[in-house]
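User: Sequence for Aldouronate transport system substrate-binding protein below. Tokens please.
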Amino acid sequence: MQRKKISFTVLAAIVGLGTLLSGCGDAEEVKPKASSSPQSEANKFANKMKISMFNQGTFNAAAPIPPRDEDIQRQMLEKAMNIDLDMMIPQAGQATTKLNTLIAGGDIPDLLFLKSRADLAQYYDQGVLADLTPYLDQFPELQKRFGKDSWDATSYLGKTIGVPGYDNVNGISRSFFIRNDWLKKLNMKVPTTPDELFEVMKAFTEKDPDGNGKNDTYGFIGGMNKEGNLQTYGFDSLMWMFGVNPPSAIEVKDNKPVFLFIDPKMKEALAYINKMMTAKVVDPDWVTMNTPDLLDQKLFKGKVGFMIRDARRLEPDYQQKMKEIGGEIPEWIVIPPMKGPYGDQIVERKSFQGNSWAISKKADKEKIIRILSMLEYLFTDKEAYPNFAYGIKGIHWDVVDGKIKNKTSELSKEMKEKYLWVDHYRMPRRGDDAEYFSFQNPKTTEAFTNNQQYVGLTLPGNLLTADPSDTLAADRTRFINESLVKFMSGKDPLTNWDQFLKTLDTKFDMQTYKDTAVKQFKEAGLIK
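Assistant: Structure tokens for Aldouronate transport system substrate-binding protein:
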């Protein structure tokens, strides 16, 4: 039976993230050289082996695959592993169809990049994928490369059936932006608690921080996506101050699941946001903010003092847009998230490790070991790392004053386009590697680095897969989202909270969802 992700699971996976390329200038083109790592010079594999790879994990599916004699990364992999690598890049939007066609024809690639845990479980159930559990102890460095939560995501029915695909990027897209120039003018300090934040937002709204004599500023702006979900648009970050989040957030405590979207602390979070609404510190346009671009326009216009936005908005291109649209470049700074009443200080939860590498069940033991060796080399070899994460030495990066310097932002448009294909190999880049992004503003790097300490662990609820018999799942999710919005906006008073919980149980069969969670958490070993 085909599996799909549970409707409550909202993944913040940053799949297909390309390198941030900006700036101009030409770089002298040099002839790339293959790595001289000990592993590649003293190859431990005597017999050359052909490996076919289905790589939908590329960061640029539109980039052509270059000839072997021009493909330095492919040469490195082939030399290090003594293989002939046949890499297939499916066109964007056609990967699932292409892969299913290959499987149906019996032509299963040896190594497959899959974009979701649901796909991983489905193909394993269909007998397509190998169980990797017996082999992983031979690859301790590969095991250490990824955290326990990432490996848990590749486990299914007590077996490890995949290797984490690549790090998701956290600590950048949900940064806490505040107008430091407004704080200075109003003689206020950077807020560190929800109460202090409220007072700052109130002052930003009422005390004319831009000094134009008009009542045209607001303390906060957030929004929700077109499906009515509050995640990723700012309000969810406020909820994290209270240790809760809608509607996929499920924790496991004291050997039982805790559904954070109906936890009593959610009522407190909603009361806090409703307090903001009542005090009119929230820009009333929040109800129309259903795309990131609309929120960016608010940032550029400079009439809001506090927002949850991507730290890359500190980069020169965005600063210029502020100048063009708002007439000035405000002193935006990224601050730590506020520490809530229960000690929570979270900028975001680590994105679920949905993507993975899987190996065909048709591969014999020798081929499985060779592929796992290649993945270990790809993800853990220190000398190889910049050649895959950054690109070609002398073009995309070089060693400057003894340190690696990413030069991508200095390349001309023509050079960038010529080497688009290096995006096929960037998977080993670490999600917290600021050099990979080649930030042009040191403040962006600082914000990204500082945010890492406030990235919480992945919630176990992301491991859940849907119960096909749960026909009320979509309606239940919709009801939860709509109810939370009504509570925080004041359209429904919080005195009706208990009635909300009762309706969930009686009309939307919340117990079925709870039972599914308990069953699957037991299967995953999270509940005894």
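The longest helix spans residues 473-489.
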